[in-house]
Amino acid sequence: MSTSYRPYHPDQPYLLPPDPREWLAEDHLAYFVSDTVDALDLSAFYAPYEGDGRRKQPYEPAMMLKVLIYGYATGVFSSRRLARKLREDIAFRVLAAGNYPAHRTLCEFRKRHLADFEGIFVQVVRIAREVGLIKLGSVALDGSKVKANASKRKAMSYGRMQQEEARLRKEIRSLTKQAEKADAREDQRFGAEFTGDELPAEVSRRESRLAVIRAAKERLESRQRASDRERGRHEDDDQRPPTGRGRRYKHPFGEPDEKTQENFTDPDSRIMKTQGVFSQCYNGQLVVDGESRLAVAAGVTPSASDDGQLIPMLEQVERNTERLPRQVLADAGYGSEDNLAWLADRGIDGYVAQGREGKNAGATTKPLRAKMADKLKTRRGQRAYRKRKHIGEPPFGWLKSVLGFRSFSLRGLDRVGGEWNLVTLALNLRRMAGQMVWE
Predict the structure, then answer these.
(1) Residue 373 phi, psi dihedral angles, 5° rounding
(2) Cβ-contact 324, 346 below 8 angstroms
(3) Across-strand partners of 141?
(4) Which of 71, 72, 270, 274 could tie 426 with a disulfide, CB 3.0–4.6 Å?
């Protein structure tokens, strides 16, 4: 007896439902994103389009925002992929309601409103707190390296810059002399009005490269001067101590180490170690609520160190939620004396590691660090600190492994910060969709 298969007629036309919303389940994420965006204050997104008298009607900002957020919440970050999804994916078509903005339009909308995504992130956090999802009883602060939109091959060390600058200057002088001699010969042979372009083009190319290197070198020196001033150095500091023995400082004021690198593609990014290799990266920071696992603060820094991020990130928590958490969990990267003093002054119960997990912190002369090390040795301290891993680290795993957000699409610290807010609020909405019900 032959096998009987289910009917399959690919050429058979169908009468599809007139309402595309019937194609999605009632609890689909797209509906939650749409309802949430409709409940937000979007005045910052509408303001640029008001009263400009343009002939062509712009796309509805609410629709564009819904498409972007849903795209990031489902791992679609490229504007070209978003534009393709608007024609191929039912959920995107439902959100766009018959609109098909081109990828350039989507890209320009995202760039124009990068600074506004922080406000949307804060509104979503406050909604979550208002409905009781965010408790702020315990929060975990953590950071993770995210690749920049730049290659480390497009970077150069300060020492190499000095060598290249000297080489290019020498070549430019040589080419300029050759050009002057060639001009003199051509003036005699063809007349003063004749000009040749080969040598001047070579000079121009080298001068352009020299200008790029000089600009990068100046950025490194500027950052080094600022760093020296923060450490209490002055421009007139003598390189040698009064005794004349040894050196007071390794380098003169404002001079970077020869190995310090600058990237030409994205100067704000830095070389950082991630997954065992060195790459151009940014350091993404999140403060995560222990009850809901929602991010209540998000930030990006070009520094590989986490030490300077505890205070500004917790201040952001206070701005976003209008209060500070009762308990803070953080790893050894945030364990400085200043950070512990800040927590103590505000009455926050902190559990901040003073060394790598599984290893002794070692002796310290800092009183607050010594006190914290003793606190973490108690049974209560160990029980509290154990929560850090399953509160603070999973959101980075969701961002990188579930959503696939392993690299920023944009360049520059401000733009990267805007994209970080966008992907974090998208992740929050994705998690909120399973935790709350709209009335």
Answers:
(1) -60, -40
(2) yes
(3) 287, 330
(4) 72
**β-pair partners for 277:** 274
Integer angstrom CA distances of residue 312 from 148, 190, 334, 350 = 22, 69, 12, 16
- The first and second tokens of residue 253, run together, are 């004021």
* Separation CA 428–CA 439 (nearest Å): 19
Token pair listed for 215: 């600009």
Q: Tell me, what amino acid is at 223?
A: R
In this structure, what is the dihedral angle of CA atoms 161, 167, 172, 177, given to the nearest 10 degrees? 160
405 token code pair? 């957000």
User: How far apart, in whole angstroms, are the C-alpha atoms of residue 380 and residue 97?
Assistant: 54
Nearest CA-CA partner of 29 in 95, 80, 77: 95
Each residue's pLDDT, cut to its tens digit, for the chain (439 residues) gives 677 666 767 777 766 667 777 889 889 999 999 999 999 999 999 998 887 655 568 899 999 999 999 999 999 999 999 999 999 999 999 999 889 999 999 999 999 999 999 999 999 999 999 999 999 999 999 999 999 998 877 666 656 566 656 665 665 666 666 666 666 665 555 455 555 544 566 666 666 666 666 666 666 666 667 666 766 776 666 554 444 555 566 667 766 666 666 777 888 888 898 878 888 899 999 999 999 999 999 999 999 999 899 999 999 999 999 999 999 999 999 999 999 999 999 999 999 999 876 555 556 788 999 999 999 999 999 999 999 999 999 999 999 999 999 999 999 999 999 999 999 999 999 999 987 654 4
- Residue 130 to residue 122: CA distance in whole angstroms: 12
Read off the DSSP letter of residue 285.
E
Q: 294 in helix, strand or coil?
A: coil
Measured distance CA(228)–CA(248) in Å, rounded: 13
Domains delineated in the chain: 20-112 (no CATH), 134-151+269-410 (3.30.420), 153-232+250-263 (no CATH)
Torsional sign, CA 415, 417, 419, 421: negative
